[in-house]
């Protein structure tokens, strides 16, 4: 996925039975955590997660009524600090205490990657799932660019990243932790040093690989009491090389191709880089109605051969009512690229339906990939309430695979735009033509024509006479 | 030149003249109207005259009052005259274009047997429970019972009684002018229970000039189809206070009955939230004498603004939002008291802001800090809080304390917190307010459409306008005939339709050229056409004048 993916504020309201939640949590319980991951390039990624839970009156019903399921996407929104303000208001401690003091808009929007999300879903309150709690999960991920903000230096501290330090946990939080990913650096303390030294470390399998984290628990008084504030620092002992990050097992690309303003083709490339395991992927695509899809041109090829999806659901669009919905279950062979392409025709809109800048193009929402990706390392089944929040975002269904949902990049498709000044031009041109015809017609009909005697003398004759007089010759 | 040549030329000239005249005629008679018609915007006809007629509407609010006479309440020969009807009408003077007349239609009759029996009971409460059995009275109507002068139903020094239902009791008199005297007393009681100048003035506060009913008068919430009520608990100091409130139970017990009684007025939705680290915008003053903190009355307006941005409920609703905030002051600023204008602490420790909501400061019992470590668990006493909030809710809806006539016994409201006749009064006021709003909306819409001539008026906008006008007229009729419930429904429909017409997005489109641009675009046609036509007309005019003058000279 592109690192410059735009902010995608996504509200997933899934009316389905939650899978976890064995013990009854306290009402309005908040857990917050910050994961700092030094990237091989020297950049640093920071991911905030806040989870609030509260009891609801909602009784769980058997099964899900699919007629109430809704899916909506806003393909693009201009990123602005105003995206952060309402998001911060949802936090119980606002930005007054706990990890949320670090959320300073001018720093967070000055990064090379910014992703912000709100998830709301019902979760079971107990094992029998007789009653349901609501879970509000807010996540924010940013990647700080090493060279731009660090002025050449690659050492990091909380203060340098957020221009704040941590002073106290949010009094409402039942858990408030900072994790620093030290996986690649824990074996040899030569490359990276974390200061202050962590009291505990935590090991887990995340996204199929084993990771080690240094843990700072803000509720533990020893962490903050020494200097009244916690300013985490990362010091590189050896400058990091610009090594490429490891490629994930599953990633995707999407583009629009074709020329002219009549037809085009939407293509999605699905990459499975796993050396020996194939796995299925659920691809969900919504395409606006003004791209008229030709479903018979849907082709799926992997390794040069046709790949037949095991399940296809297609709901055709209705003009100005609903978009196309295309859902497919595709098996991705091991270490392969699968290309899903479909042709479309661009429709003409009514002239009031165009946006103020129609030549910019229209955004097409990203497709959504859901997959169970095989993991490198077997993960133990864990207690979801005990394990950190970042772990539950990619839940492992069993020991051999973990769940991933990917969003491809949104596309920009230009539609045929009419010349909006055309009515004016046509009127002006027609008027001119009519006026010209009218003028000669009018002249013909109203003028009187008569033969006139050629008059004596003109300018040439007078000139000639003048010259003649000068010469002494009698005038004409 | 030869004569036949000259004659031929003259003929040509006349033909040319005729052709020019014909051109001019075709352009003016055929071309211009055709162009005008084809470039015109569609404007459905609107009832302009009816709308301007609404402004001089006469509102007659009729209150049907049944006056029931028991035996021995009036002299016997007077009783013989029953039943009959007396109408008492009077204009309510308001600086407003709507003329409002209040009309009490008193139907006098003799008491029936069961009424006689009930009124001969020992106490008024027992009588009331007897009356509660029969069917409900219609909204807006009143029943006044006239009992004997020496009846023990009321305490001896009380002349009248106003009950929680649409019912009142007045003492009779043995006098020659009994009907007149009793009639006056009945009117006094009926006015207290239904329409007074104050109620209508408060309802029309938005439409009246500022000077007369200035801001010291209460401005009730504007009439709307629904209302949203938000209870917020503000805990600015969660490190020291762990506050719990049973808002669900409190709403169920205290607020919901009140809202059920108000069901006729609109839809209500109630929600609650707890906000942490939400501070008031003002630093309270420390008073060393009582070692407590004070919020002065003049600083109260500044309290709301910083909190408001955190409330966030107004963003999700179309309806007006009423906010009720319970503020638990931080440890450093407690106890906190609100001072009134004279500097004395307010007993309820609360204040309200018209059309916005109310704030109550809830101080934590200082004994709670003893011995226990922070945070202190605080359990909010919801009865105390809800008493204040319900009183504020009544004020915000414009349900004022009634102005009682002298020597009147008054029974407090029942568990719903509102009396039936108070609800009627609210409906009267809301109906009048709705009518005024709808009239204003329609008038300004008509003015706007009249002023800007190239706004497209679609048929559905026009039909909404017609519906609104019809609803206003129907509401006025129903008010005049005393059917309060249907009048209120019609007035609500009038407001809805008129607003829908006024805010219809199709009025904003302005897809058609403004007039000056329309002319500018057609200049390439008009200029070359108009110049020769005008020139030749001018020439023909000069020539004919010359040829008329010539014969005079010859003479």
Task: Describe the protein's architecture and organization.
The complex is a heterodimer of chains A (476) and B (555). Chain A is mostly beta strands and 476 residues long. Chain A has eight helices and 24 strands. Chain A has helices spanning 84-89, 105-108, 146-150, 158-162, 221-225, 389-392, 422-446, 459-471, and strands at residues 11-13, 29-38, 44-59, 113-124, 131-144, 156-157, 173-181, 192-195, 200-206, 209-217, 233-236, 250-257, 263-272, 279-287, 291-302, 305-306, 311-315, 324-332, 336-346, 362-364, 368-374, 396-398, 401-407, 411-413. In chain A, a hairpin with a 2-residue loop joins strand 15 (291-302) and strand 16. The longest helix of chain A has 25 residues, at 422-446. Chain A is elongated. By secondary structure, chain B is α/β, with parallel strands linked by helices. Among the domains of chain B are: 60-202 and 408-414, no CATH class; 226-397, Collagenase (Catalytic Domain) (3-Layer(aba) Sandwich). In chain B, 43% of the residues lie in helices and 19% in strands. In chain B, the strands form four sheets. Chain B has a seven-stranded mixed sheet with strand order 2-3-1-4-6-5-17, sandwiched between helices. Chain B has a five-stranded mixed sheet with strand order 9-7-12-15-14, sandwiched between helices. The longest helix of chain B is centred in the N-terminal third of the chain and has 36 residues, at 3-38. The chains are: A mainly beta (476), B alpha/beta (555). Chains A and B meet through helix 7 of A and helix 1 and helix 15 of B.
């Amino acid at each position: 996925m592109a690192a410059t993916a735009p902010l995608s504020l996504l509200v997933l309201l899934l009316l389905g039975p939650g899978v976890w939640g064995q013990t009854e949590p306290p009402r309005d319980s908040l857990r917050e955590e910050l994961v700092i991951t030094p990237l091989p390039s020297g950049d640093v990624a920071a991911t905030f997660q806040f989870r609030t839970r509260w009891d609801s009156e909602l009784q769980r019903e058997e099964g899900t009524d699919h007629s109430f399921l809704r899916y909506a996407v806003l393909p693009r929104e201009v990123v602005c600090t105003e995206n952060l303000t309402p998001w911060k208001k949802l936090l119980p401690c606002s930005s007054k205490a706990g990890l949320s003091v670090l959320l300073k808009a001018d720093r967070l929007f000055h990064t090379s990657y910014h992703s912000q999300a709100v998830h709301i879903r019902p979760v079971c309150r107990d094992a029998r799932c007789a009653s349901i709690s609501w879970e509000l999960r807010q996540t924010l991920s940013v990647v700080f660019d090493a060279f731009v903000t660090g002025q050449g230096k690659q050492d990091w501290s909380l203060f340098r990243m957020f221009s704040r330090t941590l002073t106290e946990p949010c009094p409402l939080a039942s858990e408030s932790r900072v994790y620093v990913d030290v996986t690649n650096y824990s074996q040899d303390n030569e490359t990276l040093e974390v200061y202050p030294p962590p009291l505990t470390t935590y090991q887990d399998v995340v996204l199929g690989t084993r990771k080690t984290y240094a843990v700072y628990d803000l509720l533990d008084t020893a962490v903050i009491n020494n200097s009244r504030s916690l300013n985490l620092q990362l010091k590189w002992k050896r400058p990091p090389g610009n090594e490429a990050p490891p490629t994930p097992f599953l990633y995707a690309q999407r583009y629009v191709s074709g020329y002219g303003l009549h037809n085009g083709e939407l293509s999605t490339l699905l990459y499975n880089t796993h050396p020996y395991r194939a796995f299925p992927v659920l691809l969900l695509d919504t395409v606006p109605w003004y791209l008229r899809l030709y479903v018979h041109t849907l082709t799926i090829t992997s390794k040069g051969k046709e790949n037949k999806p095991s399940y296809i659901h297609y709901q055709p669009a209705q003009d100005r009512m609903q978009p196309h919905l295309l859902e497919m279950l595709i098996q991705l062979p091991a270490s392969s690229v699968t290309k899903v392409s479909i042709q479309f025709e661009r429709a003409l809109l009514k002239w009031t339906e165009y946006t103020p800048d129609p030549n910019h193009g229209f955004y097409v929402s990203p497709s959504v990939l859901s997959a169970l990706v095989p993991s490198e390392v077997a993960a133990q089944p864990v207690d979801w309430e005990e394990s950190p929040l970042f772990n539950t975002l990619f839940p492992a269904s069993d020991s051999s695979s973990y769940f991933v949902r990917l969003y491809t990049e949104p596309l920009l498709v230009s539609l045929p735009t009419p010349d909006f000044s055309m009515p004016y031009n046509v009127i002006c041109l027609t008027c001119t033509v009519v006026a010209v015809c009218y003028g000669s017609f009018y002249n013909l009909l109203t003028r009187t024509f008569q033969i006139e005697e050629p008059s004596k003398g003109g300018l040439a004759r007078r000139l000639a006479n003048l010259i003649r007089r000068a010469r002494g010759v009698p005038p004409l | 030149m030869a004569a036949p040549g000259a004659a031929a030329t003259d003929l040509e000239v006349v033909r040319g003249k005729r052709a020019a005249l014909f051109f001019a005629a075709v352009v003016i008679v055929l071309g211009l109207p055709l162009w005008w018609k084809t470039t015109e915007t569609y404007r459905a006809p609107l009832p302009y005259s009816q709308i301007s007629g609404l402004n001089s509407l006469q509102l007659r609010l009729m209150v049907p009052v049944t006056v029931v006479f028991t035996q021995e309440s009036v002299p016997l020969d007077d009783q013989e005259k029953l039943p009959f009807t007396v109408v008492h009408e009077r204009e309510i003077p308001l600086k407003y274009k709507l003329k409002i007349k209040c009309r009490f239609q008193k139907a006098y009759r003799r008491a029936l047997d069961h009424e006689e029996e009930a009124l001969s009971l020992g106490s008024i409460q027992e009588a009331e429970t007897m009356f509660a059995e029969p069917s409900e009275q219609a909204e807006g109507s009143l029943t006044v019972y006239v009992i004997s002068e020496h009846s023990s139903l009321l305490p001896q020094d009380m002349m009248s009684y106003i009950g929680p239902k649409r019912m009142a009791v007045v003492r009779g008199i043995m006098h020659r002018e009994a009907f007149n005297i009793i009639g006056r007393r009945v009117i006094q009681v009926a006015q207290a229970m239904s329409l007074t100048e104050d109620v209508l003035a408060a309802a029309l506060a938005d439409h009246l000039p500022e000077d007369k009913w200035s801001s010291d008068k209460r401005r009730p919430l504007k009439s709307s189809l629904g209302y949203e009520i938000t209870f917020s608990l503000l805990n600015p100091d969660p490190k020291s206070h762990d506050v719990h409130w049973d808002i669900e139970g409190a709403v169920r017990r205290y607020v919901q009955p009140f809202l059920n009684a108000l069901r006729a007025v609109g839809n209500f939705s109630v929600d609650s939230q707890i906000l942490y680290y939400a501070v008031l915008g003002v630093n309270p003053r420390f008073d060393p004498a009582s070692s407590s903190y004070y919020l002065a009355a003049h600083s109260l307006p500044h309290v709301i603004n910083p909190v408001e941005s955190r409330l966030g409920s107004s963003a999700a609703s179309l309806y007006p939002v009423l906010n009720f905030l319970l503020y638990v002051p931080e440890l450093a600023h407690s106890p906190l008291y609100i001072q009134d204008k004279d500097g004395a602490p307010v007993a309820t420790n609360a204040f309200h802001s018209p059309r916005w909501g109310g704030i109550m400061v809830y101080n934590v019992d200082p004994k709670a800090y003893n011995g226990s470590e922070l945070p202190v668990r605080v359990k909010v006493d919801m009865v105390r809080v809800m008493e204040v909030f319900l009183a504020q809710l009544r004020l915000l809806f414009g349900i004022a304390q009634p102005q009682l006539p002298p020597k009147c016994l008054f029974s407090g409201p029942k568990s719903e917190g509102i009396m039936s006749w108070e609800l009627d009064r609210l409906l009267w006021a809301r109906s009048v307010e709705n009518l005024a709003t709808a009239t204003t909306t329609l008038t300004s819409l008509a003015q706007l459409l009249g002023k800007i001539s190239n706004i497209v008026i679609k048929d559905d906008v026009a039909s909404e306008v017609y519906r609104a006008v019809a609803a206003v007229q129907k509401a006025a009729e129903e008010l005049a005939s005393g059917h309060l419930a249907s009048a209120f429904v019609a007035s609500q429909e009038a407001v809805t339709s008129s607003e829908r017409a006024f805010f219809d997005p199709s009025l904003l489109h302005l897809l058609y050229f403004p007039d000056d641009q329309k002319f500018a675009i057609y200049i390439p046609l008009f200029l070359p056409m108009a110049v020769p036509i005008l020139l030749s007309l001018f020439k023909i005019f000069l020539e004919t004048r010359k040829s008329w003058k010539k014969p005079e000279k010859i003479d």
